[in-house]
Amino acid sequence: MIKITKKAQMHMTETISVIFIFFVLVAFGITFYYFFQKSALQEEQQKQMEAKLEILTLRVINLPELRCSKGEAEPIDNCIDVLKLSSTKDVFKEYFSDYYFEVFSFAKVKVVELYPGNSTWTLYEQKKETQENQTFNYESTYFIVALRNETANLREDNFGFGYIETGVYYEPIE
To answer: What is the pLDDT of residues 21-71, one digit of tens each?
Structure first.
C-alpha cells in the first residue's frame, strides 16, 4: 500500500512539474508576442508619421496663400512668394481655429531663406499640451523651394532659395 502512495505522489509531482513548465513557456510566449507587437506598432506609427509629413509638406507647397504666380498664369512649381509669405503669418493667426487647425493639426511650418538673405518665417506652430509624465515627439522633414522676392532690386535676380520645414507632434508608443 505504501508503494502505491509513492507512485501517486510521483505522478502528482510530474504533473505539477509539467504544468509549471507549460505556464513558464506560455509566459515566455506572451512576453515575446508583446515585444513583437510593440515593435510592429512603432514601425506602423513611423510609416503613418512619414505619410502625414508628406501630405503636410504638399499642403504647404500648394497653399495659394504662398505660391508664386504671375497674374492669371499658372503658378510656378515649388516656389514661394516672399511678399505673400511676410503677410501670411497674420492670416494664419486670424483664421487659426476656423480653417488652419483642421488643415495642419498639431504641427509646425517654417520657411527658411538660405540665399540671398538669411530670414526665417514660422508660419504655423501648434504644440500638443503636455500633462504630467506625458511627452510628445517631434518629427520633421525638409523640402527645398525657390523664393521669389518681387520687392528686390529689379536689376538683380529676384529669386533665392530656401527650404520648408514641416513637422508634426505626436505621442510615442511606449
So the answer is: 999 999 999 999 999 999 999 899 889 888 889 999 888 888 888 888 777
Best CA proximity match to 57, nearest among 128, 140, 174: 140
Q: Compare 15 and 9 and report the one with higher pLDDT.
A: 15
Pairwise CA distance, residues 92 & 100, whole Å: 7
Average pLDDT over residues 100-107: 85
Domain ranges for the chain, please list them.
34-170
Residues 6+ apart with CB under 8 A from 119: 112, 113
Q: Which residue's C-alpha cell is 520687392?
A: 151
Per-residue burial over 99-137, b = 16 or more CB atoms within 10 Å of its CB, e = otherwise: ebeeebebbbbbbbbeeeeebebebbeeeeeeeeeeeee
Query: Is the Cα dihedral 67, 70, 76, 78 positive or negative?
Result: negative
Q: How far apart are CA 168 and CA 22, in angstroms?
A: 46
- For the whole model, what pTM was predicted? 0.70
CB 40 within 8 A of CB 144: no
Residue 133, CA distances (Å) to 112, 129, 130 in order: 33, 12, 8
